[in-house]
């Protein structure tokens, strides 16, 4: 990478001596239960799998569970196209690792991403020697990008989006961002706005493609049909709503909305925290308000303790079950500064959507939903309660869900286009 900005050069210098800082951070995350103790060496670039001896290797860097889910369709298509191809996915979070373990294929491997320090990155690349490196969305790690480019490995950035927060960060260091983005051979973006912002940094138009979002094409989350039938029987006519992917600070507001909208035992709130290890914490918060609580991790049922008021879905991989079961869903991350979460899954599963005012991660998508009357925005506990009361009307629920599904239904174009671009880069070598 020639003509690196001073900021990038400074970062790369620090990356050569940053290992002690990463060791401190890793130790803290281990104590918080956010790391897998038996796999911590992976973050120092040490692999738990041998590199395949035959066929080409495509490496995807997808930081968290949302990015990981968005590429599974692409991975399936690539593996189907080439029986000799192997795929490596690196991620950061435990939740993404657990998801990938459930989706394992004999030509598909997962490793925790190496820390962005020189020794870890070099050890990682020395072992894997990928034929193509693909970054997902906007998770740009300078040392990893620069060292990959230095080794002349073709690189692509897919499903790229620029949120308001990301845009503000990029505007502080435009030369640094140009240096990183220009390292990619191809950049596939979700929206016209992102395309414009990257072009304004000086990235050549021939590198840019408007692909749309692969999250719109992602396969629907599965649900065990037998378990769903049992739960539907337990539910009966009782109103149930879901708080999906909550973060600290949001649960209290959602519990308050539930208490405002419903009397004791009248309805059930299912809380599915973004990080399931928060289940016990949320349970105590609800019990402190005098509510009856059941936990999924304890194998409790809805009927535990004479009908629970709150059911904590503190498990992974079951969102397909909850979206199919409930009468409405509040998409969290939108009451705190996390930018909101993915509305595609509930929309395509005919689950009425409520969300908070902070939606910069999916701003354009939510704008489309509101233009088509496919979602309700609620800024406070009182407004959430009012939305829930309104959605007790079955006709209102049906219409809201129908509008959302029609708005976000696609033909898989983004996934197909992205797969095609990746194949072209592989053939180009």
Structure description:
The chain has helices spanning 6-15, 19-31, 65-81, 94-102, 118-128, 142-150, 164-172, 174-181, 192-200, 225-235, 251-261, 279-287, 319-325, 344-348, 363-371, 381-390, 394-408, 413-428; strands spanning 57-61, 86-91, 108-112, 132-136, 155-160, 186-189, 208-210, 239-246, 267-273, 293-295, 310-312, 328-331, 353-355, 376-377. The protein is of the alpha/beta class and 429 residues long. The protein has two domains: 6-217 and 412-428, 3-Deoxy-D-manno-octulosonic-acid transferase, N-terminal domain (Rossmann fold, 3-Layer(aba) Sandwich), CATH 3.40.50; 225-408, Rossmann fold (3-Layer(aba) Sandwich). It has a seven-stranded parallel sheet with strand order 3-2-1-4-5-6-7, sandwiched between helices. A seven-stranded parallel sheet has the order 10-11-9-8-12-13-14, sandwiched between helices. Strand 12 (328-331), helix 14 (344-348) and strand 13 form a beta-alpha-beta unit. Helix 3 (65-81) crosses helix 18 (413-428), helix 5 packs across helix 6 and helix 11 (251-261) crosses helix 16. The radius of gyration is 22 Å and the shape is globular. The relative contact order is 0.11.
C-alpha-based Rg, rounded:
22 Å
Number of domains: 2
**Share in β-strands:** 5-15%
Overall strand count: 14
How would you characterize the largest beta sheet? 7 strands, parallel
Rounded to the nearest angstrom, the distance between the terminal CA atoms is: 18 Å
Q: Assembly type of the shown chains?
A: single chain
Q: Unreliable segments (pLDDT under 50, ≥5 consecutive)? A: none
Task: Quickly count the helices.
Answer: 18
Q: Pairing-aware structural class of the strands and helices?
A: alpha/beta
